[in-house]
Prior knowledge:
The complex is a heterodimer. Chain A has seven helices and ten strands. Chain A is of the alpha/beta class. In chain A, a hairpin with a 2-residue loop joins strand 4 (56-61) and strand 5 (64-65). Chain A starts with a strand and ends in a 6-residue tail after the last strand. The mean pLDDT of chain A is 91. Helices cover 71% and strands 8% of the residues of chain B. By secondary structure, chain B is of the alpha+beta class. Chain B is elongated, with a radius of gyration of 28 Å. Chains A and B meet through helix 2 of A and helix 8 of B.
Amino acid sequence: MIKLDNVTKVYNGEVTALRDASFDVPKGEFVFLVGASGSGKSTLLRLINKQEDPQKGEVWVAGKSINDLPSHKVPYLRRNIGSIFQDYKLLANKTVFENVAFALEVIGRPKHVIRQQVPAILELVGLAGKQDRFPHQLSGGEQQRVSIARAFVNRPLILLADEPTGNLDPATSEGIMRLLDRINKTGTTVVMATHDTKIVNMMRRRVIELDRGVIVRDQARGVYE
Amino acid sequence: MFSRLGYMLRETGASLRRNLTLTLASLLTVVVSLALLGTALLVQRAVDNLLKRWEGGVEFIVFMNPDATQDQIDAVQADLEDNPQVDKVTFFDKQQAYDEFKRLYPDTPELVEALTPEQMPTSFRVVPADADSDLIEAIGSQFERKPGVFAVEYAKKAVDWIRTVSSFLRWGSLVAAVVLGVGAVMLIWNTIRTAMFARRREIEVMKLVGATNWFIRVPFMLEGLVQGLIGAVLAVGGVWAARQFWESRVIQSVSITELQQLQVTSAQFTGVALLLLVAGALVGAVGSGIAVTRFLDV
């Protein structure tokens, strides 16, 4: 589903964020990306949804190389990839419903479809009944669930998570992880960058460790160390 | 589909209102620049209307009395044609004179109705061999005292000053229109940039969930289009008011001067008005479309 082949990414000709990275993620796998700040985790995620392009090497998504993907086709790549972030990236002046519906509006889904799918996904993530609230009226965990709902409403092939529990307490983080696990069990490939040792140790999934841009460990059923 | 359009227009209105000063500044520039453009175009058309009579190198016109006899007319014609310094002579009969009169004063029907073709003078349109003004006057003055001749009108006296003034007016307003047009585009540019900055979070999310560039562009282009269109409508209003003023004060005045021939038909005015509307909408939409693309960097 996701494959990196000797990928090197350099910012501004000076900072090497990723050096010669290679790995292969089959469909349906759950992968943790661990490492210190600046080790290249976010860069790696950004390479997958083509927010960045590599200087060297090739990136493959769903069996196709995306290096030479023309910019007008990039939106269609991104519709197959759901993304969630540490800061949730919700729109403050839209309700929960509108935030999630946004992902459907943008791809042109008709109103009646939106009115069906949004409540369904909100129920799935555990936010039934909160669809008319605004983000500032929700807790951190609830906001992240809204983000997850938005990322997952189109049933993408891949879910990228960049430190999703970074701003959450341990109990809430666990809840989010259980949700991500459920999503993974539906067949969605999940790649999650994180600092959270507890969670990594708890889940025992494949762990790819980065150190200053280099992959130093790629272990199935690994721990944070 | 219409609910989407309504939603988009409401969002556009809200966005424009959010930065009212900038919006008004760009609107004002659009209005003034388009109004100047419109005026330049109308002046050009009016002058063309006026000069029609003098086209083809006609330098003087010999007007016969409305009640001149056929012999007198023939005599004058013969004299003109025999004159070696005359290149071409064209005769305008009463109906032609009446038609021309109708064309010269398109928006003063009362004036036209007051006369009949019978009352119109016939005339000879003369193209001299040499465009020397002294020479022309010399030839013309010969005919002024001929029997049956009402008057001799010279291109130089009648229209030269208008030609100069209108040329100046036209180029002046065109230059001003272009300069202001550039200013207007820059202000629209800035309005869009500000709007995009205000909506940067939304745009970021749009890019992440896979909105196409056009989906992101269209609301901003709509904003530009609305600004351009409103500006054009106001400009058309301004030009219309100017024309009304011109017609009520200058044209309807009691004394009859050449200035009164500086008119445009309603059709010509409508043509210019439509042009302004299209120009405003296009500049607004295209300008903002380009601005969005530049700042989008997907």
